Amino acid sequence: MIVIHVNHTNYKLLLQDVAAAMGIPAPQHDLLLIPVSKGKGYFKAFDLHNDLHVLLADFSINETVMTVRERSDNRYFILHFDDVLVTDTAVLKVDGEQLQKSNTRHAVARLTSNVFVNTEELPARIHIKSVKVLFNENWLKRYMGLQEDDDVLQKYLSLKTESFDIEPLNSTYLQLMDDLWSVRKEDPLQLMLLQNRVTLLIERFFSSLFSKVNLLQGKFDLSSEVIHRLLQVEHELIHDFSKQPPTIDQFSKLVSMSSTKLKKSFKSMFGNSIYAYYQKQRLSKARELLLSGRYTIKQSAQAVGYTNVGNFTLAFKKQFNQPPEQLLAQQVR
Questions:
Q1: Taking Cα atoms as reference points, which of 200, 113, 97, 119 lies closest to residue 149?
Q2: Which tens digit of pLDDT belongs to each residue from 184-236?
Q3: What is the pLDDT of residue 163?
Q4: For the whole model, what pTM was predicted?
């Protein structure tokens, strides 16, 4: 078994530790290649200018691997986007709690912190594609607009292994991850493309976390049945922005609730009225399309149901404090 103790916050140093533990040549240019005798694949580390440290991994190792990240008072956090094909059994332990997966594809996003001891035990020849983003507490506070510790985050982290499956990797996550592995090192826009995709992964994860935060904290007094119905409404509301959303009356009939109770319960759970929530989500989707670099402003507008680009631009500026043209201009600097 290969055992790797992780006690630093620098992925470039981590690659050196991995190489030493495996007895293979040291990384070159922050790229660690796994020789055929040990397995296959690679690890790549890079830093982004906004204090984010990123590790890309696509590998399989012929021996069982255990990584141990010790608890530390110098708090930091790691976002994991893991796509793991488990043909045997993989074990994850956090402060004595254990998560075990066998004979499955385990594709999830999860947030961990060194406030816990994190131990991962991976069987030989397991195939892993992973993106890990490490950041400190100050970065997280800036990102979330916090002045002090956030109770929501503490609640989320306190779930430990129960939270690891909280965000399955859907096709959008997986496409963004594939984009990261597809960036060519000779591309003059390499760093910009890497930062763009990492930013989109982070935004998608935290947007999803915020939407579930009331559920985690139980801030509202709703029965599980009502919550289930509201989640059904939310799905119907945002699953296809190219179509007009149902009316309140249609939603009421769909979930067998009065329109008054539906509107009040939805706002209690999601923090916005039904159509304010719809507007916020459709514009966020448009922003995501623009940041992907694959869509023009007109195409992004049409994808979320706008027939008039001028109206789209006004709504976009109102929500994000900048017009879409400015967002695109920032991406090519």
A1: 113
A2: 776 677 778 888 899 899 988 887 776 665 555 555 667 768 877 887 898 88
A3: 43
A4: 0.65
Q: What string of DSSP letters covers 196-210?
A: HHHHHHHHHHHHHHH
Measure the CA–CA gap between 75 and 137, rounded to whole angstroms.
6
Residue-level length of the chain: 333
Give helix 190-217 / helix 151-158 axis angle, nearest 10°.
Answer: 90
Alpha carbon distance 12, 111 (integer Å): 21
Spell out the domain ranges in the chain.
2-169, 221-331
**Cα–Cα dist 136/15, whole Å:** 20
**How far apart are alpha carbons 314 and 306 in whole angstroms?**
11
Q: Taking the mean position of all CA atoms in its chain, how far away is CA 245?
A: 27
Query: Can you name the CATH fold of 221-331?
Result: Arc Repressor Mutant, subunit A (1.10.10)
DSSP class per residue in 118-187: EEEEE-TT-EEEEEEEEEEHHHHHHHHT-SS--HHHHHHHHTGGGGTTSEE--HHHHHHHHHHHH--TT-
Please check whether residue 118 is in contact with residue 184, taking contact to mean a CB–CB distance below 8 angstroms. no
Torsion, Cα 19 24 30 34, to 10 degrees, reads: -100
- Report whether pLDDT(18) > 60: yes
Quickly tell me which residue has 């579930």 as its tokens. 212
For residues 21 and 61, the answer to whether their CB atoms sit within 8 Å is: no
Distance between CA atoms of residues 184 and 169, nearest Å: 24
Q: In angstroms, what CA-CA distances link 133 with 98, 211, 259, 261, 326?
A: 23, 21, 43, 41, 27
Is-contact 201 174, C-beta < 8 A? Answer: no
Counting runs of H as helices and runs of E as strands, what totals does the chain give? Answer: 12, 10
Nearest to 301 by CA among 274, 332, 280, 324: 324
154 or 22: whose pLDDT is higher? 22
Kindly give, in sequence order, each residue whose CB lies less than 8 Å from that of residue 307, ignoring residues fewer than 6 positions away. Answer: none
Distance CA 105, CA 103 (A): 7
